[in-house]
Amino acid sequence: MQNVIPVAEDLLYVGGSDRKISLFENLYPVPKGVSYNSYLLLDEQTALFDTVDASAGDLFLENVARALGGRGLDYLVIHHMEPDHSATVRRLVGAYPDVTVVTSRKAAEMLGNYFPAEEFRIRTVGEGDVLCTGKHSFTFLGAPMVHWPEVLMSFDSASGALFSADAFGTFGALSGSLFADEADGAEWLEEARRYYFNIVGKYGVQVQAVLKKAAQYPVKRIYPLHGPIWREDLSLPIEKYDLWSRYLPEERGAVLFCGSMHGHTAAAADLVAAALAGEGVNAKVYDVSRTDPSVLLAEAFRYSHAVFLSATQNLGIFRGMKTLLSDLAAHNFQNRKYALVENGSWAPQAGALMQKALMECRGLTQLGETVTILSSVKEGDLEKLSALAKTVAEDIKRQ
Ligand SMILES: Cc1cc2nc3c(=O)[nH]c(=O)nc-3n(C[C@H](O)[C@H](O)[C@H](O)COP(=O)(O)O)c2cc1C
Ligand SMILES: [Fe+2]
Ligand SMILES: [Fe+2]
């Protein structure tokens, strides 16, 4: 079985999609699966750009054989050594023993950590080095920590193609069409945002650096390692990556995260959200126990303002909220405004502890005072909650 798809005059898609996988990296739910992209160039010399995850290995090897049509394989370019793209390197090299692996020095070291190094013929390349295959010439750009240290991108001066490694990738299997302009852009954005903030988001500075480098080349197409290929209008992925990596919110509005055992803190969240809506502000409520942490993280980055509402649990922060706050700090959450609501029946502590957890993040500003609820929302609390909502709404509308 094979599924080779031409994507340019002499470039073929030889990757595959996994729709059975439930957790990517055993962490992130992927209800629509994920694709592992690999591209084969048939120039005077042949070159394969990355391999695939073990789950797509059989299909991939059949694809490569079919696409080569009896020709040999001259080069395997490895842009990224993470196993979702390199698990099949050894099988590939076993099938094409004369192939030269072209990769960064750091990736070559990693290759030797995954597989016996003596099995590979390696040519290391770095910033500005060029691989010429005939008509095509690939210039390598270092992309350290986007999102591993060994990552390379490459730019083909003949076609304007940028092979971008994991950057510009997204969750979700490919559905026949491989081009972003033939798919649903809104769907791409939702999942690309979740992919970015969970996997790449910690490294905004490094993403900025590589965006600046890539901007010096006349890029016409972007070939990522996951999800659709971008051609012609590249503005959506580039604008989003620029915004996300500068840690700027995409939307002015408030996202409310609530952690509640018996429903009273959740009731407070609904009251704050309703008051925000009454002020004409876009608000969204998430129950931290019901929504996957990867979605919560992406939503926190998406909006300009967040309200964290937590019941006190054994003198601590409610479990899902604690996870969210530590995920935010671990992913460099910054430059946002937030408000706090705590609840407790005998010794409310969640507010002070949430404040402390958020002090791990840079450039955050608390709006209003922390509202404390004792067990359930009462008459006096209503006023405090709507006053807090008003403060948040005014701030959202101000800028
Ligand atoms: C397992 C458990 C531990 C709790 N620990 C505390 C606590 O340490 N301090 C406190 O003030 N309330 C504590 N509470 C009470 C909750 O904070 C209480 O559910 C809250 O006042 C009401 O909010 P909720 O309806 O949103 O859960 C605890 C409740 C449970 C079920
Ligand atoms: Fe990766
Ligand atoms: Fe990847």
Write a concise synopsis of the structure shown.
Helices cover 34% and strands 26% of the residues. It has helices at residues 57-68, 83-86, 89-95, 105-114, 185-200, 204-214, 235-245, 264-278, 293-302, 319-330, 350-358, 379-398, and strands at 5-8, 11-13, 16-18, 23-24, 28-29, 34-36, 39-42, 46-49, 75-77, 100-103, 121-124, 130-132, 137-142, 152-156, 161-163, 221-223, 230-231, 251-259, 283-287, 303-313, 316-317, 334-344, 362-366, 371-374.
Properties at a glance:
alpha/beta, 7-stranded mixed sheet, 34% helix, elongated, binds flavin mononucleotide, binds fe (ii) ion
Description:
With 399 residues, this protein is α/β, with parallel strands linked by helices. The chain has helices at residues 57-68, 83-86, 89-95, 105-114, 185-200, 204-214, 235-245, 264-278, 293-302, 319-330, 350-358, 379-398; strands spanning 5-8, 11-13, 16-18, 23-24, 28-29, 34-36, 39-42, 46-49, 75-77, 100-103, 121-124, 130-132, 137-142, 152-156, 161-163, 221-223, 230-231, 251-259, 283-287, 303-313, 316-317, 334-344, 362-366, 371-374. The strands form five sheets. The protein has a seven-stranded mixed beta sheet with strand order 1-2-7-8-9-10-11. Strands 18, 19, 20, 21, 22, 23 and 24 form a seven-stranded mixed beta sheet that branches. A six-stranded mixed beta sheet has the order 12-13-14-15-16-17. A hairpin with a 4-residue loop joins strand 12 (130-132) and strand 13. Helix 5 (185-200) packs parallel to helix 7. The longest helix has 20 residues, at 379-398. The N and C termini lie far apart (56 Å). The mean pLDDT is 97. Bound molecules: flavin mononucleotide (FMN) and fe (ii) ion (2 copies). One fe (ii) ion binds at residues 82, 84-85, 166, 225-226.
